[in-house]
Design a protein that fits this description.
The complex is a heterodimer of chains A (253) and B (352). Chain A has 253 residues and is α/β, with parallel strands linked by helices. Chain A has one domain: Rossmann fold. Chain A contains nine helices and twelve strands. The longest helix of chain A is centred in the last third of the chain and has 17 residues. Chain B is globular and about 65 Å long. Classes of the chains: A alpha/beta (253), B mainly alpha (352).
């Protein structure tokens, strides 16, 4: 279990300390306006930045106390963008950071509709394709291509994984993430800009505003019309879906 | 739409043929290793004194031939192989570290930094005449290369992508210019004897390779090569960007320290021993990357073997082209590498 214990940054980009934890099997959406500290929070959760206050612990051991290779088997990160210096074939890129076999790589590529691109050079991919390749790499790192059961208590962190995907790919990815969370007891934290994706697929939502986590809870609790309008400075209304009653965010014309 | 157009037969074959053939790393390295051995054999026999096996073994005893072979040719060949391997290997490692195919010890000013330090050492501190002798020259080369490496790295660290590339190339240009000018000043204030030593060394030549120099290379360069080889997996991970690489289990600051120190040690030694031999570190990894792909676990050892091969061949040419006179090998590699580099830039432009 990944826990934040009064963890935060005093120096910019700031993040006011708070405590919470990522539960196995849950899909958490981190939402908030540009510059609210979502990526900063993610780098804190991944251990890339050490908190100036408090601590971030995986299984009660601070992330900085983990051996890097052991930590890499337990948590993987998908960054916002991919900039490559050299033209890696997709298959080799996906295998970076794991000792995955060819069949494991094939399995992960299939999960993300990437089989046709396996031999392509990654520099020639479109934005959405590159994004899916990076997600595939992270899944491979956690050993999710294997048929046997994976290590328990794994964590997957994603920074805006849907930003370059078309609507069909968004749906397939969010369904895949939700499935992985449940089937492998994965704890997934995902920065999302699309509030409706968060409302539809996340079990829990954290709302960030200017370096403060101002709300946390189920989508219905957090995605409140008045709060969202104030935080995002947008004219919007929040309704509810007819099928499951989950919130539906609509922009005013 | 162009994607759905069926490709005509011959064109399709050409497109598909461009993808690298799956070859096992072992095969590639064995192939390159054999080529290096063959080049060593041929090079050992050619020169202003032809030393075929018949001369060495047939007219036995032939002390003069053996003396030439043992005292002059063997140390020189070993030095060429080691320096070539080091320059090409460090080129590949630098390119991986900067995630940029244009990084190279000469281009980034590493070699000229080492060169300047050696010039300072020769002129201001007495050079070979001092009690430290040749080892002082190694040390000066190492410190000069390390200084530039740290400086360039600090500059390249702040930016990313295209911007970082320009900063690096400009920093390299500035360091090269500065080192050139300082070298000029050193030449100006040097005594005649120092000037001779300086210019002999500065042209980039393996011609004064005696066992004393080769021994230094034998002691210093293999550990630096080994060190770089151990960084291969980390360099692969670093290609994902620092944030993702950290997530995949890489201790990036540690990797950078290792690559920087190993490169500075090796390149500093090379420059101290053989002067500035340009473009090897750019040329060899680039060609091999086109053939083998960008993975460092194969690219690094292959570059080392390829660099050794190229420098053995170039040095043999330098010895035989104008025999019994000699062309400085640094001149030769720059003549070869300069046009190639321009072609590379033109091609990059065309792709944008």
């Amino acid at each position: 279990m990944l826990s934040l214990i009064e963890a935060g940054f005093a120096r910019p980009p700031t993040l006011a300390p708070f405590s919470d934890s990522l539960q196995p099997g849950e899909l958490l959406a981190i939402v908030g306006p540009n510059g609210a500290g979502k990526s900063t929070l993610l780098s804190l959760l991944s251990g890339f930045r050490r908190p100036e206050r408090g601590s971030v612990c995986l299984d009660d051991t601070p992330l900085s106390g983990w051996e890097p290779a052991a930590l890499a088997r337990r948590r993987a990160l998908v960054a916002q963008s991919l900039t490559l210096g050299f033209d890696w074939p997709v298959r080799e890129l996906v295998a970076l950071g794991s000792a995955a076999t060819a069949s494991e790589i094939d399995a992960v590529l299939a999960l993300l509709d990437l089989e046709a691109l396996a031999e392509r050079g990654a520099m020639s991919l479109s934005g959405g394709e590159a994004q899916r390749v990076m997600i595939a790499r992270a899944l491979c790192q956690l050993g999710l291509g294997r048929s046997e059961q994976t290590e328990p208590g794994q964590v997957l962190l994603l920074d805006e994984p849907t930003s370059a995907l078309d609507i069909g790919q968004q749906q397939r990815l969010m369904r895949l993430l939700r499935h992985l969370a449940q089937a492998h007891r994965l704890a997934i934290a995902c920065v999302l800009h699309d509030l409706n994706l968060a409302a539809r697929y996340a079990h829990r939502v954290w709302l960030l505003e200017r370096g403060h986590r101002i709300a946390a809870g189920t989508p219905a609790e957090v995605l409140d019309g008045r709060t969202l309008a104030r935080v995002f400075e947008a004219e919007l209304t929040v309704g509810s879906r007819q099928d499951d009653g989950s919130p539906l965010v609509l922009l005013a014309p | 739409m162009s994607r759905t157009l069926p490709l005509a037969g011959p064109w399709r074959r050409r497109v598909e043929g461009r993808r690298k053939q799956p070859r096992s790393p072992g095969q590639v390295l064995a192939l390159l290793g054999l080529a290096v051995l063959a080049a060593l054999l041929v090079a050992a026999m050619s020169g202003s004194v032809g030393l075929s096996p018949r001369v060495l073994l047939g007219e036995w005893p032939s002390p003069l031939a053996w003396q030439v072979w043992w005292q002059l040719r063997l140390p020189r060949l070993l030095l060429a192989a080691l320096v070539g391997a080091m320059l090409a290997g460090s080129g590949a490692a630098m390119q991986g570290l900067f995630r940029n195919p244009l990084a190279d010890p000469t281009l980034l000013g590493l070699a000229s930094g080492a060169g300047l330090a050696v010039a300072l050492w020769i002129v201001l501190l007495g050079g070979a005449g001092s009690s430290l002798g040749l080892y002082g020259q190694f040390l000066a080369g190492f410190l000069g290369a390390l200084g530039v490496c740290v400086l360039v790295f600090a500059l390249g660290q702040r930016q990313h992508g295209q911007e970082a590339l320009f900063t690096l190339l400009l920093a390299g240009l500035a360091i090269n210019t500065l080192a050139g000018a300082m070298g000029g000043v050193m030449a100006f204030i040097a005594s005649d004897e120092q000037l001779r030593q300086l210019s002999l060394w500065g042209m980039g030549s393996l011609s004064h390779a005696l066992w004393s120099a080769t021994l230094g290379a034998l002691i210093g360069i293999p550990p630096a090569l080994w060190w770089l080889l151990r960084c291969a997996r980390g360099l692969d991970l670093l290609q994902l960007g620092e944030l993702t690489a950290h997530g995949a289990g890489l201790d990036a600051p540690r990797l950078k320290r290792h690559v920087v120190v190993a490169t500075a040690l090796g390149v500093g030694l090379c420059v101290a021993l053989a002067g500035i031999i340009g473009f090897l570190g750019l040329l060899v990894p680039h060609c091999l990357r086109l053939w083998l792909g960008p993975g460092h676990r194969l690219l690094l050892p292959a570059s080392m073997l390829g660099g050794a091969l190229l420098l053995i061949v170039a040095d043999t040419l330098a010895r035989t082209l104008a025999s019994p006179a000699e062309v400085p090998v640094g001149l030769l590699t720059s003549l070869l590498g300069g046009p190639y580099f321009l072609w590379l830039l033109l091609k990059r432009r065309a792709r944008c």
